[in-house]
Every structure is written in C-alpha cells, then in structure tokens.
Amino acid sequence: MTIRVAFLGNDRWSVPPLEAIIGEPDLEPVLVVTNPPKPAGRGSHPTPTAVAEAAARAQLPLLETQGLRAPSSLETILAAMPDVVVVVEHAGLANYAREAVAATLAARAKSGGSRALILGFT
Hints:
By secondary structure, this protein is an alpha/beta fold. It has helices spanning about 15-25, 50-55, 70-80, 90-110, and strands at about 5-10, 25-35, 40, 45, 60-65, 85-90, 115-120.
C-alpha cells in the first residue's frame, strides 16, 4: 500500500526529509507546500525556497502560499487527499500548520471525507 504524503517546509534543512520521502517506494509525495519566492541577493530577485527548488527537481506538485490561513491553501491540501501531512519547520509555524490542517481534516472526516495523520518535526 502506498501512503500519500503532503509535505510542508521551507528552509534548506527541510530538504533532506523531503528527499527521504521522495526516495521511499512506499510513500507518494502528492503535494509540497512552501512559502512563495522572496527577494534576495543583489537586485532583490525573487528566490524560491530550498523546498520549492527540491520539489521542482523532483517534478512534484507545488503550492507556494503566504500561509495556511487562506481557505484556498487548505482546500488545495485537502484536494491532494494525503494520508499523512509532514511538517518540517520551526516550532511556531509547525504548531500552527498542525492545528490548521488538523482542524480542516477533522471537519472533512466528520462529513465522510478522508482522514490523515499529521507528523510535525521542529
């Protein structure tokens, strides 16, 4: 049985866990969620997060969003129908992401939708 995984993270230290998921044959990354590109370097060119770059290399579906408070962000996660949501981030965002996704998934489960396990790593 393949486990469908939604992955949330931003920084370069979030990339090794994403790559481990990509390399595991029993896991199917169905969505990667990260922040949108931010200005960086000389000229302040928009620069994607390390997680966005890793997702692009692996040709994974990518959601770049300012936050999970937007209903469209949560709907995109739900539409991917993950079995597991993995959050690899600093404590503040990880806690909020777990709470937001958990509340949405619980509401969906009550209405007969899918259930998911949320794993957070800080």
